[in-house]
Amino acid sequence: MKPFLEMIGISKTFPGVKALDHVDLHLNSGEVHVLAGENGAGKSTLMKIMTGVLRADPGGEIRVEGEPVVIKNPVHARSLGISIIYQELAVVNNLTVAENVFLAREPLLPTGLIDRTKMNADTRAVLHELGVEIDPEAMVGTLSIGQRQLIEIARAISYNSKLIIMDEPTASLSHHEASTLLRMSRKLAAQGVGIVFISHKLEEIFEIADRVTVLRDGRTVDTRPVSEMTSDLLVRLMVDRELDQLFGHHISHATDEVLMSVRNLTEKRVKDEGVFVRDVDFDLRRGEVLGFFGLVGAGRTEVMEMIFGSRPHSGEISINGKPARISSPSDAIEHGLGFVTEDRQSRGLVLGMSVRENFSLTHLSDYCSLDFVNRRKETAACADYIRALGIKTPSPEQKVLNLSGGNQQKVVLAKWAARRPQILIVDEPTRGIDIGAKAEVHTLLGKMAEEGMSIIVVSSDLPEILAISDRVIVLKEGKISGELTRENATQESVMLAATG
Amino acid sequence: MRVLHQLLQLRHMREFNVLIALILMGLLISLFTPYFLTVSNLMGVSRAFSLTAIMSIGMVMVIITGGIDLSVGSAMGLAGLITALCFDAGYSQYAAVAAGLGVGLAFGLTNGLLITAIGLPPFIATLGTLSIGRGLMYMITHGVPLTPETPDSFSFLGQGYVGPVPVPVVILLVLTLIFTVIMTRTRFGRHVYATGGNENAARLSGVKVQRVKLAVYVLSSTISALAGVIAFSRYLSAEPASGFGSELEVIAAAAIGGASLAGGIGSVLGAVIGAALIGEIANGVVLLNINTYAQQAITGGVILIAVSLDVLRNRMGGRG
C-alpha cells in the first residue's frame, strides 16, 4: 500500500528542549494507525506539525501522496486532506449541528442568504454515512460529549479528508460512546480514510489499530503491526527508561496514624458528561506521600476537587477521626487542607499580582492585626520563602506574570507551604517545568512530609509518581482500580492497573 | 535629591497618567482665561465634581472585583428623595439621613444578592435595580420636586464650608483617604483585588469571593446614597430626575483613573482624579464660552485618549 503521508527525519526544537528528534512516520490510506507514548513523548508536537500549526526544524521532509510539501498552516493542511479532532472540542454549542458542520463555508442561495435546506440535507447525508441518528437542526449544546465528537468527525468527512487525526478521542466518553466512536473509525478506514488515533488505553489500542507507532522522549521507538504487539511489550516500549538519577533516594516519613479517611466519595453530577467519579475509598497517613495515578480522564483531579470542596459530592471525609463537612474551599482550608492546582495560571495564581501578594493570599491573617496588613512582616516572610525555595525573582514585588513556569510553580508551593496545612494536595506539580526545577519541587515535597505533613501527589508522569510516593492509588474511569505499595509499584504494574 | 527621587518614583504610580492629564488640562484652560486658576473657582469646581467623585469611590471597588454597578444614580436619587420625605413627615434630621443611607443599603443588598446568590451578571442585576429606582422616584413624586422644611444645621452638609473648602469636598477627601487605606492596607482590600484578578485562584486560596462581592455592592450603593443625601442638602429640593444618567459619568471617572473593566486593576485615588478631570473639563467649557453641548463630546474624547494611553503603556511592558 502506498503511504498517504510520510514524515521523514522530523525534528522540532523549542528553546531548551528537543521535542522531536528525527521522527519517522508513514501513514497509509485506509489504516488505523495508533500513536502511543507517555505525556511529553512528543505526540502533540508531531500532530501540530502534521496539521501545520507548527513548522518542523529544517532537515526533515514531509510527503503527501509521494509529493514533498511544506504544510504552511491548518487551512493548508485541510486542503491537503488532513483534518484533526482535538481533545478539547471545537464546536459552537449555541449553533445547530448543521451550522457547526458547515461553519465558515455555509452553502448560499443566489440571494446571499444561507441555503438552510441544502445545509441540513447535506449534514443529514454525512451523518447517515456515519450511521448515526442526530437531528441536523438540534442545538449542539443539547448533545452529549460523545455526540459532539461525532459532529466533529462529520465535519472532517464533509471536507473530504483523507487523513483524520484523533487526539485521545475517547478520553472523556462513556463506554458506550467510546465503542460507537471506535466502530465509526473502523468504518471510515474501510472506506479508505487514514486514521491517526492517539490513545493511552491498551484495550482500545488492540481493538482498533492496524499498526502502532510508539514515541518516547521525542524519538520513534518502534512501528509494527498490532498483530506483532503485546500489552507487555507496548507498556515496556512506552515507559522503559532509567529512572532519573536526579531524584535521589526515597525516604519514607509515613506513620501508622490515619490522618484523613475518605469513604464512598461520589460525585454529584449536574450534567451527564465526562467521567463519573464514584465510590472512592482511601486512607491517608500522617507524613505519608500518597501518589494518585491514572490516565487523562480517569478522574484524578475530580477526586481532589471533591475533597477540597470545589466540586459537589456525597460520601464521608474524616480528618483526625472527626467527620469533616467540606462544601467550599474555605471549609477545606479550615480543616487543614491545601491544594496546589493543576493549572497554575488559571487557578493557582493571580497573574497581575506580585509574588508577595500571591504568596500571602492563603494566610494573610498571619500578618494582620485587626484587618490591617503588616506589610513589613509579609514581605519578610515572603523573602524567606523566596530564599528557601530558590525562587528566581528580582524582588517580592515582581508580578508573577513575569516569572518562568518553574518559578511560578514554586510560588504556588510557597503560598501553601507557608500556610502549613496538615494535608497538601499537589496536582501535576511539575507539569511544564524543567528537570532542575522538578527535582527541587520533589525535594521540597519530601521535606514537608518529613515535617509531618501528609501529601497527595496527583500526576500523569509515572516516573515521578514512582520516585516520590510511599504508596500509589490508581484510578481508572472514575473508580479506584488498584492500590500498590512502594515495593509493588513498578511502571508496568501501575500502567496495567490504569489501562488493563 | 531624596525628594527628587521620590518625585520620580511617582511616575510608576497608576494614577500618574491621569494626574498629569489633570494638570495639563488645567494649564491649558489657564492659557485662555484668568478665571480658572482662582481659589474661588477651584473650590466651586471641586464642589461640582465632588458628588461624582464620591460615587466613583464605590464604583471603582466594584469594577476592581470585575463587576459593574449601573444603579448608582438611582440609589443616589432615591436616597435624597427618601431623606426629603422623612423631613416632610416631620422626622428628625438624624432619622432622615439614616433613612436615606438605608436606601443605599437596601440597593446594595439587592444588587449583591442578585449577583452572588442567584448568579445574575452584574450588568443585568444593576440595570434592573436602576430602572426600579427610577420608577419608584416618579411614582413617589408624580414628577414634582419635593421641597420640605429642613433645619439650618442640615444644609451645612451640602452648603457649608470648612475654612475655604466646601463641606462636600471635605467629605470627599476623608472618604478618599479612608478607602485608599482600606484598599491598599487591609485584608479586605487585598481580597477585592484578588477576586477581580483571578476569581478561581482567589476562591481556591480560601478567599470568600461571594462575601467580598456582596460587600463592594453594599459599599457602592451606600456611598451613592450618601452622595444623594448631600445633594439634597445642597439644593433642599428632591428632584424626580436627580442622579439620572450619572452612572455613566461615574464609570467614566473610574476608567479614566486607570481601572480595568476586566477586574483586578484600579485605584480609589485614580477614580477620584478621573472625576476631577471630568469636572475640570466641564468648568473649562463654561469659562471658555464653548458650546456646552460640546462638553459631553470632549469628555468622551478624554475617556478614549486616557484609556488608550493606559492600554498602550501596559502593552509596552511598563509597570502597571
TrEMBL record, chain A:
Pfam families: ABC_tran. SMART domains: AAA. Coiled coil: none annotated. SUPFAM superfamilies: P-loop containing nucleoside triphosphate hydrolases (SSF52540). It comes from the Bacteria. Keywords: ATP-binding, Nucleotide-binding, Repeat, Sugar transport, Transport. CDD domains: ABC_Carb_Monos_I, ABC_Carb_Monos_II. The keyword DNA damage does not apply. The keyword Ribosomal protein does not apply. This is Sugar ABC transporter ATP-binding protein. It comes from Thioclava electrotropha. Residues 5-242, 260-500 form the ABC transporter domain. GO terms for molecular function: ATP binding.
